[in-house]
Structure formats: structure tokens, C-alpha cells
Amino acid sequence: METIHHVALQVDDIGEAVAWYRQQFVCEVKHQEATWALLSFDNTNIALVLPGQHPPHIRMPRVDANHIGPLAAHRDGTAHIKDPSGNSPHTLDPQSRKEPA
Q: Averaged over 44-73, what is the pLDDT?
């Protein structure tokens, strides 16, 4: 997988979720309507969708399993936070990396 076009997260309220993401992160609203919105970040997009209207999903332009190598577990400074609907976007701060003991 070379890129992800967007990840779709189910939220309870489109307007509330858009406001929360714009307050927490630097992003641009590319599209917004009653049942979904698309937020654009520097390197990807997040679609905010209503349950029952759109399923949660990840959209990849192309997936080729031959290009996926073994994954190694490591401590990478990932922090998990929760948005108003309980989704957990992950943030990565390289300065908070923890080295194995």
C-alpha cells in the first residue's frame, strides 16, 4: 500500500465532529453535507460519516500484497485520543518515543 486516500470514521453529529477536528488539528473542510464531510490534512483525508448512512472504512487507491513486508512492533510515540463520538484517531509525536528497557 503506497497511500491511503481517506479513512471514514462514524460520528454521531457531522457538525460537532467537523468542529472538533478543526479545533484539534490543522485541516481543511473539502466537502460537508448532512450525512458526511471530508477533511483534508497535509498527507491524507478523513471522511466523517453518520452510522446507518455510510460504513466506516479505509480507502486505498491501490493495494498490492507483494509490496507489503513483515511488520515489526516498536515503541513509536503513538498517543490515542478520543473524539466526541468515541473514535480514536492516533497522533504520533517522535519526541515522545520510549526506548525498550
A: 66
Tell me the sheet residues that pair with 57: 8
For the domain covering 1-61, report its CATH number: 3.10.180.10
For the chain, what is the mean pLDDT?
73
Cell triple for residue 91? 497522533
pLDDT at 91 exceeding the cut of 70 = no
Query: Interior CA angle at 77 toward 76 and 80, to 5°?
Result: 115
Is residue 26 within 8 Å of residue 88, measured between CB atoms?
no
Residue 17, C-beta contacts closer than 8 angstroms, at least 6 positions apart? 9, 11, 37, 48, 83, 84, 85
Tell me, rounded to whole angstroms, the distance of Cα 83 from its chain centroid: 11
Q: Alpha carbon of 82 to those of 73, 85, 99: distances in Å?
A: 23, 8, 25
- Whether the Cβ atoms of residue 75 and residue 83 lie closer than 8 Å to each other: no
